[in-house]
Amino acid sequence: MNKEMVLSCSRGGRFVAEMMSKVAESVNRPVNLLRTYYAQVLERDLNMHQTWALIEAQVAFFLGVMPVGYAFTLRAVALLWLVVAVKKCRRLLA
Q1: Residue 20 burial (CB < 10 Å; 0-12/13-18/19+)?
Q2: CB neighbour burial string for 42-52, b if at least 16 within 10 angstroms, e if fewer
Q3: Residues 78, 60: contact at Cβ < 8 Å?
Q4: What is the pLDDT along the chain (94 residues), one digit of tens a residue?
Q5: Rounded to an integer, what distance in angstroms lies between the CA atom of residue 36 and that of residue 47?
Q6: DSSP 1
């Protein structure tokens, strides 16, 4: 005897898609605020990719400078990350 069951997930799939859309919107809201702030400071239009690159460079800077108790190797990694992030920003904003 062959037992088959068909599950319809169109309603559940739509619910998950709507929830994911709302989560993405709530995450992007503060980034959009930063994007408009950066655009005013730099006096040019920025896209989200450029904004994320600027945020990455700032995070790398603060991780390399702020924590006093880091070991030398962690500071070296943070410095390397900062150099890479700044180069990425220069490439994207050129």
Answers
A1: exposed
A2: eeeebeeebbb
A3: yes
A4: 677 766 555 566 688 888 888 998 898 899 999 999 999 999 999 999 999 999 999 999 998 887 778 788 888 898 999 999 999 999 999 8
A5: 10
A6: -
